[in-house]
Amino acid sequence: MLRKVALVTGGASGIGKGIARRLAEDGYEVVIADRNSSLIDEVINEITASSGSAYKEVIDVSDEQAINELFQSWSGRYGRLDVLVNNAATNKPKSLIETEPVDWDFVMDVNLKSVYLFSRGGYPFLKESQGAVVNISSIMGQQLLSSGNTSYGVSKAGVNYLTRVLAKEWLKDHIRVNAIVPAAVDTPLLRAGLSEEGKQSLEDSISKGMIQTPEQIAGVVSLFLRPEASIITGTCLVADGGSQLV
């Protein structure tokens, strides 16, 4: 029996790393698409050390030509595509007035346009396998939680809308498309710049379930891909430990 193949963008660190490792545990051959070659190698070493299979694609997820070339050679390299996880993301935390057009475009290209490009490129393979797409969004795409994240919040709102559009358009092809909507997740990006007091506060929040771990988000991805979830599509599922209810 052929092993299923999953592609994870931004899979070299943070949430993406957690997802790549979990999908490998679930029996997928995992293709990690990221621009950081050395970090991809680290994840692949961890996966293979646990008897999993993983492959490396060094790519800028905002580079349309590179993405087109990836999928042009996909059949010869990987044969099939069963799962696409659009996880890659970045942020330029500034107010609207402070955000320069180049920063706006950069965030939109990585967070939203990449979802469009990878989904469009992967469509023929997903159609053949009757596969699934899972987009990693953010609570900031639904709620105004803090100032200074204008471009990020708008890009994630776009991810939510695109998730529902693709789910509707691809329903006839039996491709399921869903999104996970976390709040704060313990990643290197979140920890960057935190003081010691801030890090301690972070640990306290994690222990209380108010901040999630990459492994927890990866578990929700795994849940979406189970046969029991085959009737779920077009859903943007909030996975925040109830932090928005406090």
Task: Give an overview in words.
- This protein is an alpha/beta fold and 246 residues long.
- Helices cover 47% and strands 15% of the residues.
- The protein has 9 helices and 7 strands.
- A 7-stranded parallel sheet has the order 3-2-1-4-5-6-7, sandwiched between helices.
- Helix 1 (14-25) packs across helix 9 (214-224).
- The longest helix is centred in the middle third of the chain and has 29 residues, at 101-129.
- The protein is globular and about 50 Å long.
- It starts with a strand and ends in a 7-residue tail after the last strand.
- The mean pLDDT is 92.
Overall, the morphology is: globular
The percent of residues in helical segments reads 40-55%
| Class from secondary-structure proportions | alpha/beta
The H-and-E topology, N to C, reads as: EHEHEHHEHEHEHHHE
- Strand composition percent: 15-25%
Number of helices: 9
Major sheet strand order: 3-2-1-4-5-6-7
Mean pLDDT: 92
Number of DSSP E strands: 7
**End-to-end span in angstroms?**
47 Å
Report the major sheet.
Answer: 7 strands, parallel
- Which ranges are low-confidence, i.e. pLDDT below 50, for 5 or more consecutive residues? none
In angstroms, what is the radius of gyration?
17 Å
